[in-house]
Design brief:
Strand content: 15-25%
Shape: globular
Largest sheet: 8 strands, parallel, barrel
Structural class: alpha/beta
Strand order of the largest sheet: 1-2-3-4-5-6-7-8
CATH topology: TIM Barrel
Radius of gyration: 16 Å
Length: 274
């Protein structure tokens, strides 16, 4: 979502990132959701990555609900809306995570998203195991299916595949139904996917496009970049992944290529980082 907003000229400055577009360009958010649906995505993440109280103040709930409504009206019947719960601080700075002190804010956002009618909750882009587990616990507490996405960062340095396996196991014990690696460069994702395969639950990946010079996203030739992304994603599927999507730097073209793979879920996951 964030990458597509930037590509279309929408300003999304931090710390609210793509949440700005819920006010300034809701029609573009809607159009992006529709394009992902047209490309073959069947699970669509609400633009709630940064609709936290600490980021948006008193308007957080209004904008979170608006994001879910926009997603719902933009996609066909039978498709699912995933409510995004993200780290309260920078998703590439686990040292800034409030840890267990994040519980109240994750709880209140999860409850609002479920009240607004999401089909599942997606705790995504967590580099901190404590906050990841807390978010999953509060999402599961709502009674709605919960997935978790863990990130090793763009260069894969924030955690090892073994560490991601361990955090994933903790999230499963907390009630997560699926575990994914996300917002790690697509060229570095396979090792993490292979370890997630050992957890005994549905798993997969939605990677970012890596560096601009990788020519997979970020304005590279759309068709060639999407094909390169899908060629790597095929290795995830061969490892047993049943969930595949895209994060920063990817777009509808990448999802269209993924839709041709033999996976159970074809997903478009939002990221607020351009």
């Amino acid at each position: 979502m964030g990458s597509e907003l930037v590509r279309r000229g929408v300003s999304i400055p931090g710390p609210a990132w793509s949440a700005h577009a819920l006010d300034s360009a809701p029609q573009i958010v809607e159009a992006i959701h529709r394009e992902y649906a047209g490309a073959g995505a069947t699970v669509h993440t609400s633009n709630t990555f940064r609709t936290h109280r600490r980021t948006l103040g008193t308007r957080w709930e209004e904008l979170a609900r608006r994001a879910v409504r926009i997603a719902r009206k933009s996609i066909p019947p039978g498709h699912r809306v995933a409510g995004s719960l993200a780290p309260l601080a920078d998703c590439y700075r686990p040292d800034l995570s409030p840890g267990s002190a994040s519980r109240h804010e994750h709880r209140e956002l999860a409850r609002v998203l479920v009240d607004e009618g999401v089909d599942l909750l997606l705790c995504e882009t967590f580099p901190s195991h404590v906050e990841a587990v807390v978010a999953v616990e509060e999402a599961v507490r709502t009674g709605v299916d919960t997935w978790v996405g863990l990130t090793a960062g763009p260069d894969g340095s924030l955690m090892t595949p073994e560490q991601m396996h361990g955090i994933g196991a903790e999230c499963i014990l907390a009630g997560a139904r699926a575990v994914m690696v996300n917002c790690t460069a697509v060229t570095r994702t396979l090792a993490f996917v292979v370890r997630l395969a050992e957890l005994g639950v549905p798993f997969g990946a939605y990677a970012n496009a890596g560096l601009p010079e990788d020519a997979i996203g970020w304005g590279a030739d759309a068709r060639d970049g999407a094909r390169a992304y899908a060629a790597i994603a095929r290795q995830w599927v061969e490892a047993g992944a049943t969930i595949a999507g895209g994060c920063c730097g990817t777009g509808p073209e990448h999802i269209a290529e993924l839709a041709s793979l033999d996976v159970a879920h074809r997903t478009s996951f939002t990221s607020t980082r351009p």
